[in-house]
């Protein structure tokens, strides 16, 4: 039997860059602490809009390969060595934004057969036997088809794996407490004149914003803020970073959160807010 670290974390994301934006500090922390951190990314994000003019020529498969290189660099910055593409690189194509004809491409992730896609992830789950799975809520955080599909595939795979020998004890969704987001955007308004961005996004542009009471786990990533920012910078086609802010291709400034928050949607949550994804879970080989 393969030797596993005692604590094992699996994260399922839609595109290269989502992991660093949502969970960069968390991934860096657990990698530094010797936990197994496994990232499964579902597509190469080859329909993403490219920010730097000098890379604007990249599109389709060439952009996907470029973003795979960005993902490798981001994982180096976070100290994460186990990252995989669902079904292998290029198995599922980026579906583009909701409502576009791209969504109908038979190769795209949105059109994937749920059980087939989940099957690839079940094999990873049975190999790693993670105690914690992190993914998006059922709206994918903000409605992107690949994020919604990543949610569906992650939960379906967890269900199938439970029937095949490994029930993941805790499943979490990425969250930001509304008061935290509101305070950060209030600061951003004051800081905006000094930033390389002309306008700011709004609280409701941030994926996964919910009331405080739904947030069960808070990971203070202050010690890993530099690693998270470096990982986000590695995704240069998608993200422009000006700490403690960043912008996507819409050029709207938003806060770069180094404390990351989670809702527990499967398994026990601890009494009060925990500061460890594995809190209350017995580590097993
Ligand atoms: Zn994404």
Automatic annotation (TrEMBL):
Please give the family membership noted in the entry. Belongs to the MshB deacetylase family.
Q: Which cofactor does it need?
A: Zn(2+)
**Which Pfam families does the entry link to?**
PIG-L (PF02585)
Binding site residues for Zn(2+) = 15, 18, 147
Reactions that this protein is recorded to catalyse? 1D-myo-inositol 2-acetamido-2-deoxy-alpha-D-glucopyranoside + H2O = 1D-myo-inositol 2-amino-2-deoxy-alpha-D-glucopyranoside + acetate
Domain of life here? Bacteria
Q: Which InterPro entries match?
A: GlcNAc_PI_deacetylase-related (IPR003737), LmbE-like_dom_sf (IPR024078), Mycothiol_biosynthesis_MshB (IPR017810)
Cell division keyword on record: no
Q: Which GO terms describe its molecular function?
A: N-acetylglucosaminylinositol deacetylase activity; zinc ion binding
Q: What does this protein do?
A: Catalyzes the deacetylation of 1D-myo-inositol 2-acetamido-2-deoxy-alpha-D-glucopyranoside (GlcNAc-Ins) in the mycothiol biosynthesis pathway.
**Annotated GO biological process:** mycothiol biosynthetic process
EC assignment: the record states: 3.5.1.103
Name of the molecule in the record: 1D-myo-inositol 2-acetamido-2-deoxy-alpha-D-glucopyranoside deacetylase
Question: Cofactor binding mode, per the note?
Answer: Binds 1 zinc ion per subunit.
- The species this protein belongs to is Streptomyces actuosus
Which keywords label this protein? Answer: Hydrolase, Metal-binding, Zinc
- Gene3D superfamilies, alphabetically? LmbE-like
